[in-house]
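Job type: complex structure
Entries:
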Amino acid sequence: MRTVVAGLCGIAFGVGLALAGMTNPAKVLAFLDVFGRWDPTLAFVMAGALAVSAAGYRLAWRRPRAWLGDAFGIPTRRDLDGSLLAGAALFGVGWGLVGLCPGPALANLFRVSAEIGIFVAAMLAGVIGYRAFTWMRAQSAPRQLEGAAR
Amino acid sequence: MNGTETSFTPGAGLLGGALIGLASAALLLANGRIAGISGILGHAFGAARGDRGWRLAFLLGLPLGAWLATRVTGDAMGFAITADARVLVAAGLLVGVGTQLGSGCTSGHGVCGIARGSRRSIVATAIFMLGAAITVYVTRHLSGGTP
């Protein structure tokens, strides 16, 4: 049941990305291009998404558990560490180079596009490479805790 | 400026955004999970057996949903990438490593994190938005020509 719900949520998320125009990298770059022919659409995407998800969080905070019985896996960290700041900066540069962040990159996999294939392959290499690196580091320092907030 | 000019579509933006928010809220309320794409993706590798299926189902839903939407709308929003292969590889690696190191991306920090008022997510979103805007400024207005 959890898998079915997650699949339906993924589909709805993908429909939302496509309707909003997030799946068009040119449109995302036009939003980021504040000094060019600026297209502010993405601000409206964020506003729509935040309004609905904030209402969802309010409902969730009143409940002890999720509908399907699991405890809520909500990040609790509040510290601003170097990893957060450096990671966000690296991600920002990559996002600005092409106009693809992880959701739209994966959503565009339905297209037979060499560009999407190359980008997603490189992105997966980055994800797996980072995971392998932290895993190896954790093996050599067993007590080190991994940043779990996501 | 081939394919880099787009039209302002606030109504479609709000509607698509609301659906993204609805999907995030549903995943949280039903499954108790944050709809952060980079987190769902990153933890799919090396996840415990019972923790992997929902992640793959969600990730597979993304292209399926986008495909369905473009079937209905006739791909109204279009699709254009002007970057060459080297830029695509560099950007993909930066997005992959950056989102794992920084514990989130546009969905996890930008939507779910800000929606619950997380200080980390507000700061991370400000940094990656600024970093992306500076990158676009440098590639489009300083180095002459689109990437």
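Summary: The CA atoms of residues 2 and 19 of chain B lie 30 Å apart. Chain B touches chain A through 118 residues (CB under 8 Å).
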